[in-house]
Amino acid sequence: MAVQAIKKDRKATVKRSKAAKAPKQFKFKWEGADKKGQKVKGEMTAETPAIIKAQLRKQGISPLKVNKIASPMFGGGKGKPIEASDVAMFSRQIATMMKAGVPLVQSFDIIGRGNEKPLVQDLLLGIKRTSSQDKLWRIP
Fold this sequence. Notes:
The chain contains 5 helices and 3 strands. It is of the alpha+beta class. The chain has a 3-stranded antiparallel β-sheet, with helices on one face. Helix 3 packs across helix 4 (104-114) and helix 4 (104-114) runs antiparallel to helix 5 (118-132).
């Protein structure tokens, strides 16, 4: 009986935590025509293109195009973006460290601190922090 009550409590907590999360907002680029027929364009943030179109109609703009703006995979636009060459360099460095017998967490620290791009540094040192706290290796 007590086990079932605990399971129900857990399920309720999970449902509440999922419901409490705010919906993800995306940036959209839009083009339209105002009441005079002049072409207008801009950017807005919303959950879906339908919301953008509704907002534009409220402003008296007939939406012609609404496209989601692609967001960078890492870092959200601060500093120089992470490129394929950065990933290739990291792969070579981590392989060399592993062959030399350097522990993985220490390798992330060394490579992260030695990189000149702030985004790569943040990413690698974040992985190091997470893995050193043993969160990376736990099975949910």
